[in-house]
Amino acid sequence: EAQVTQNPRYLITVTGKKLTVTCSQNMNHEYMSWYRQDPGLGLRQIYYSMNVEVTDKGDVPEGYKVSRKEKRNFPLILESPSPNQTSLYFCASSLRGFNQPQHFGDGTRLSIL
Amino acid sequence: AQKVTQAQTEISVVEKEDVTLDCVYETRDTTYYLFWYKQPPSGELVFLIRRNSFDEQNEISGRYSWNFQKSTSSFNFTITASQVVDSAVYFCALSEERRGSTLGRLYFGRGTQLTVWP
Chain A residue with minimal CA distance to B110? Predict the structure, then answer.
């Protein structure tokens, strides 16, 4: 089954404790991206990747890192999480770009205390 | 300035009413793509439709229809004879195609919460 898998689905942690949210897709898609969803703000793009080893910042990249060492994986790293990063996070992928429909993961709800 | 504006934060209707969700976008590109996504209470994001800037034909899919008007930079979504299962947050999104490049970005509106009461 074609899917985008995020882990964990839920995480409660404390300020400053490094964490990684994994994202994996099995559709051989070139493009992958991360979004955060906050009440009243919709979805905002954090980072995106056009292919292996090619990444770029989205609208709200501060406090986040990403890497794309393999085509299928695009982890989101919070080196020193802060409470303002409490949010619902979505990973997405598409075959060749943002002019195509995005396939979204089920979301990861992060709470930073 | 927001690239995609969904002015309606929340809409409530009673089942069987028609409802239109507004989406206004802003871009200088001549080539761009517009999308609608649905987020039901379970939280996942579901793709509904894509429209490119060269195709102004309106589209109908069952009870759903979309009205794309370049003259007003709008891409509105109408649900006819709404049902309780239509209750969800609906997002409009814009992707621009930069001249000379295949890179693009994806901008979402803030979403409209639609509640359909039985």
Answer: A42
Residues from chain B that touch A106, judged by Cβ atoms under 8 A, are: 43-44
A54 at B interface, C-beta within 8 A: no
The verdict on a CB contact (< 8 Å) between A45 and B97 is: no
Among B45, B101, B113, the residue to mutate for chain A (most A Cβ within 10 A): B45
Burial of B116 (0-12, 13-18, 19+ CB in 10 A): buried
Question: How far is C-alpha B67 from the chain's CA centre?
Answer: 10
pLDDT digits (tens, 9 = 90+) for B100-109: 444 568 899 9
Q: Chain A residue with minimal CA distance to B106?
A: A98
Specify whether the CB–CB gap between B67 and B58 falls below 8 A. Answer: yes
pLDDT digits (tens, 9 = 90+) for B11-56: 999 999 999 999 999 998 888 999 999 999 999 999 999 999 998 8
Q: What is the pLDDT of residue B103?
A: 58
Separation CA B68–CA B22 (nearest Å):
11
As a whole number, mean pLDDT of residues A65-76 equals: 97
